[in-house]
DNA sequence: GTGAAAGCGCTAACAT
DNA sequence: ATGTTAGCGCTTTCAC
């Protein structure tokens, strides 16, 4: 078929094994033969077959990235630095689409075609971490986490972040506060909702059940949630959204229904995705530093590949408040 | 190491070859043994090694997707349906990052680890198409194209789209019109700019060189371009942007510099990325139907894998005008 | 420093 | 219908 290391060997007048060694600059090959081999390889346009190499070494230099719909700007914002970092460190990203509703098919992660995996969409009931752990596939959880004895973790300090949001709104004099939460089986939605509720409670403010809605982390949930909250008998003067996508959905509906933000109602998000900083949006939000979170996840995983004996690690990224244009004092 | 088809064979009391056949439901295996083999495989948690399979068959069920920074919402909007479609058809996407400035490293596309490639970022001088073509790696160009004797093509009808934009603005009475173009070595920027210029000329309106700026397809170029155009001695009353990202950058600057769109200046984009339809943006643009373009690209490629003798094909997707809130009659 | 040879775990052609 | 055997194209001992 196409050109193999045997062809290169023949042209260079050496054995196939020497070609293999020379091309990988292994010690135990003279500079002279290296040059001859390299020249022969160049002449023939030889590219080592990765599949053969993988079969022989059990390493593929490919990492699986399990992530949701990229139409969701949050996932796009997360995937970007993941891919960039993997690329920098000499790995290719194999994207495994997880629609976040049907159970993930783990087989592509277990068939030996990957050196490890980055899981960005685990839920409370996800089987993948347990499955990968038992089979010895190294992985890291990013963004969302799940208790378990395997896998490193790189997540935002969601509790601290939600507390910052609560303190901002309380400081602005808000007392009737609503929340648009995410899926309760995600660690992010859970931690953010609970910490926000706790922080309000600490100030003697209740997060009234009638002013809390839940749904998927998407624009529609944000829009509909905004409607529901503002349609309540006594609507809130501020809304905390469990992530930016929800918040942007809420702002969308605010605009189309003639509610002014922030004079009538404040809106605060979480994540600080790139969209949030667009002039037209100017969302006040909690920054989780997505880029650092992603880079850390990749680094944790690659360190583990280098040293499988490493203990389980969990990196919590500090959250900071980003004040833009969607918050104001309570009316 | 881990469990192989030999282990399954031993447990099921058959030969390894029979395991291979049974698990793939090949004709020439009795239903009884299939059941036994499947049961043994289940018991052992056997997953066929993809690398071994690939080495034996020269097929990997993986497609490379060469694409730019996903921080750019256009690429995210394009990658989403590409991945989804590949997934639907049983393929995994291996994302090969192309930073759009340094020369792409083709090796991952040539090392036999991919059945084919989708190229989304070709430029006039890109070597990849020629390289892949010569080596017999099937590929498809999506979004941007390049002349050449290999590879199928799935692109928008950029000329027709730009003509629609010109007609819209002319119809609104604009005569002093500016343009923010993209990189001149991309087929999209080129076709859109030229067709726009031609359409204006046909109406006796000149696209004055002083009112045309070029740059990368990013927000910064849109912002800076807007500044430059509006700072001209006689600023335009309408600006056509070669894509939505540029247009959103322009809108961003318009807002922060107190220029009202569309009463003072109209802005029209191209692509209709999801962002364009956000209420806060409401960009009037030309829809290229990204999703269909992506799905078509994948289908063209997979058809070619099934039948390599197929002639070269080029699918042009109709462009339509999407009227939102950034266009108005000339002041 | 280099060559010979034995795998890696499958698929597929060839027997039976 | 099933077993035997020969690859696929590398990496990696083990000799020399």
TrEMBL record, chains A, B:
GO terms for molecular function: DNA-binding transcription factor activity; transcription cis-regulatory region binding. Pfam families: LacI, Peripla_BP_3. Keywords: DNA-binding, Transcription, Transcription regulation. Residues 3-57 form the HTH lacI-type domain. The keyword GTP-binding does not apply. The keyword DNA-binding applies. This is LacI family transcriptional regulator. It comes from Sphaerisporangium krabiense.
């Amino acid at each position: 078929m196409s050109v193999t290391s045997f062809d290169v060997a023949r042209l260079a007048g050496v054995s196939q094994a020497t070609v293999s060694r020379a091309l990988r600059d292994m010690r135990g090959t003279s500079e002279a033969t290296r040059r001859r081999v390299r020249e022969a390889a160049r002449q023939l346009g030889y590219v080592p077959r990765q599949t053969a190499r993988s079969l022989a070494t059990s390493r593929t230099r490919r990492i699986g990235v399990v992530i949701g719909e990229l139409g969701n700007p949050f996932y796009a914002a997360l995937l970007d630095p993941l891919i960039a970092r993997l690329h920098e460190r000499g790995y290719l990203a194999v994207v495994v689409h997880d629609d976040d509703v049907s159970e993930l098919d783990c087989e592509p992660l277990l068939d030996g075609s990957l050196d490890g995996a980055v899981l960005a969409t685990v839920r409370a009931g996800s089987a993948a971490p347990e499955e990968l752990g038992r089979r010895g596939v190294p992985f890291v959880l990013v963004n969302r986490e799940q208790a378990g004895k395997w896998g490193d973790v790189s997540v935002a300090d969601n509790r601290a972040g939600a507390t910052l949001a609560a303190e901002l709104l309380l400081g602005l004099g808000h007392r009737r506060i609503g929340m648009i939460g995410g899926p309760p089986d995600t660690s992010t939605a859970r931690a953010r909702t609970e910490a926000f509720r706790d922080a309000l409670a600490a100030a003697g403010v209740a997060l009234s059940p009638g002013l809390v809605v839940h749904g998927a982390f998407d624009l529609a949930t944000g829009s509909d949630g905004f409607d529901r909250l503002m349609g309540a008998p006594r609507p809130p003067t501020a809304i905390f959204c469990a992530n930016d996508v929800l918040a942007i959905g809420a702002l969308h509906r605010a605009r189309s229904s003639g509610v002014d933000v922030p004079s009538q109602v404040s809106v605060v998000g979480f994540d600080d995705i790139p969209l949030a900083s667009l002039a037209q949006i100017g969302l006040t939000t909690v920054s989780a530093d997505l880029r650092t979170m992603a880079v850390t996840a990749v680094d944790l995983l690659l360190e583990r590949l280098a040293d499988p004996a490493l203990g389980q690690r969990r990196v919590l990224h500090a959250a900071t408040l980003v004040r833009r244009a969607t918050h104001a004092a309570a009316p």
